[in-house]
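for the recovery benchmark. tokens below, seq after
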């Protein structure tokens, strides 16, 4: 373990980790669904509500100007975090799902023609499947799916074959939310660009675990969500190359995304506001900026090293449990482990673990096709954050032995 990684100090920053569940210390192993929030995020949002709250972009009075400044400063924080070239390439959305839907409904409807192909992978979250199915059914695009192997890795040769000149957009997770597989996004982007396709990367499970650099990666679109990045719900990010965003039509209409409106026609505001109709989640943007500042103060490389150690330790401990099978064994996984235990239903496992104070996710994890690929109805998923410890992995293993005792 990294001695310089001060886990005690980090855990002290997360108030909820002091809570108990059924009289047991909380062991939170569901950060892949939504991470807990450090006090720095909570305090930044409380200050915004108590000291500087007013609607943004619409007032000449001091409170509104302060709120607007904080909102746009948050955009700059995001720009630096992902190394986008310009702040106008950072669009605030409600979450990753809305960001992908924005691209599907704006770029998809505006730039793709019936018969054009969109290529995704078998590892995708429903958020990167359903919007393209809707575009297929309503607009006539063709949806193709690149397969994965038994370890949960993309079968590159099959991806290569499917990526013909008919493919105009590739949609791919950076990290699988179900298996933790880290996909070869840099290589996929280079190949797609060489064949004339644009690329959207779903970074919902990546940005909290590893550094990302838009200018080095060269993705055309990249999305992520605040609540998995130790920030608040209701705020997400769409990064898009400025030239693409400029060419795309608005997805939603209303206030703040217009330059002028008459009953005959409307003219759109400049980027990024063209894609931010209505009152934005400006307090949540302040919270997201505070979360990014916090993550960077700890250091993404340090977080990655800690979570890698934790994942390896958990893999060893869980693999030693009789009749437990880990689903998805790709090398270099992020901090996600899905598993099944004998013939015990994951919902029963999750319920018993809950009584021990252990929070895990059970079910299909918004990835039904992945479950079908492995012929399992559901899995138990333990997903790690920077605040988790080896002792909590031990508690999970002890809880699973309790499950086995109950079920004989």
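predicted aa per position
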């Amino acid at each position: 373990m990294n001695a310089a990684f001060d886990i005690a100090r980090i855990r002290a920053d997360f108030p909820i980790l002091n809570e108990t569940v059924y009289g047991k210390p909380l062991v939170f192993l569901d950060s892949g669904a939504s991470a807990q929030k450090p006090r720095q995020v909570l305090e930044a949002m409380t200050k915004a509500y108590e000291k500087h709250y007013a609607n943004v972009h619409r007032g000449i009075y001091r409170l509104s100007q302060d709120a607007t400044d904080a909102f746009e400063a948050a955009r700059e924080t995001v720009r630096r975090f992902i190394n986008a070239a310009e702040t106008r390439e950072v669009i605030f959305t409600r979450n990753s799902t809305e960001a992908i839907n924005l691209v599907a409904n704006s770029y998809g409807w505006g730039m793709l023609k019936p018969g054009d192909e969109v290529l995704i992978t078998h590892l995708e979250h429903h958020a990167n499947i359903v919007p393209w199915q809707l575009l297929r059914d309503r607009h006539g695009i063709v949806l193709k799916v690149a397969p994965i192997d038994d370890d949960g890795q993309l079968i590159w040769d099959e991806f290569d074959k499917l990526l013909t000149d008919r493919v105009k957009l590739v949609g791919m997770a950076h990290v699988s939310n179900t298996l933790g597989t880290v996909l070869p996004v840099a290589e996929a982007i280079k190949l797609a660009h060489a064949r004339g396709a644009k690329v959207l990367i779903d970074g919902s499970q990546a940005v909290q675990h590893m550094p990302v650099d838009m200018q080095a990666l060269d993705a055309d679109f990249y999305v992520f969500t605040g609540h998995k990045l130790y920030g608040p719900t209701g705020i997400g990010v769409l990064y898009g190359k400025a030239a693409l965003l400029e060419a795309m039509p608005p997805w939603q209409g209303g206030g703040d995304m217009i330059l002028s409106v008459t009953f005959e026609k409307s003219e759109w505001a400049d980027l990024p506001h063209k894609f931010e109709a209505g009152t934005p989640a400006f307090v949540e943007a302040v919270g997201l900026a505070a979360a990014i500042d916090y993550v960077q103060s700890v250091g993404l490389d340090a977080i990655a090293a800690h979570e890698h150690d934790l994942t390896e330790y958990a893999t060893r401990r869980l693999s030693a449990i009789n009749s437990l099978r880990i689903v998805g064994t790709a090398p270099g996984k992020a901090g996600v482990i899905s598993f099944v235990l004998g013939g015990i239903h994951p919902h029963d496992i999750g319920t018993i673990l809950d009584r021990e104070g252990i929070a895990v996710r059970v079910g299909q994890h918004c990835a039904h096709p992945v479950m079908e690929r492995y012929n399992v109805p559901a899995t138990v998923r333990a997903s790690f954050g920077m605040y988790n410890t080896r002792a909590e992995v031990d508690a999970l293993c002890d809880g699973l032995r309790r499950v086995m005792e109950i079920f004989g």
